[in-house]
Amino acid sequence: MAREIDLKNLDLTEIIRPGDAVVWGQSAGEPLSLVEKLVEQRIQIGHARVFCAQSYTKTLRPEHADALEITRSPSEK
After folding, report:
1. What domains does the chain contain, in order, with CATH numbers?
2. Is 38 left (phi over 0), alpha (psi -120 to 50) or beta?
3. What is the block-wise mean pLDDT of the chain (77 residues), using blocks of 10 residues?
4. Among the four 19, 29, 45, 49, which has the fewest Cβ within 10 Å?
5. Distance, CA of 62 to CA of 16 (rounded, Å)
6. 12: which residues sit within 8 A by CB, 6+ positions away?
7. What is the pTM of this model?
């Protein structure tokens, strides 16, 4: 059953576990608020892999590799 979660109360550790791979919509479909929440909670989540093909934002930065293994498409490197 679906449940509504307020973004400020979203605890991604209930959804994403260490070792998980996370992929999201890119470009205009990028869910910025959710990616920001992922970055904010990355240490609590633990090591996770993320794929970022084409992003027009600087939400994911090299320093986030302390807990996130970031893979980018060849055109974004």
Report:
1. 7-76 (3.30.160)
2. alpha
3. 88 95 86 94 96 81 94 68
4. 29
5. 20
6. 37, 38, 41, 45
7. 0.84
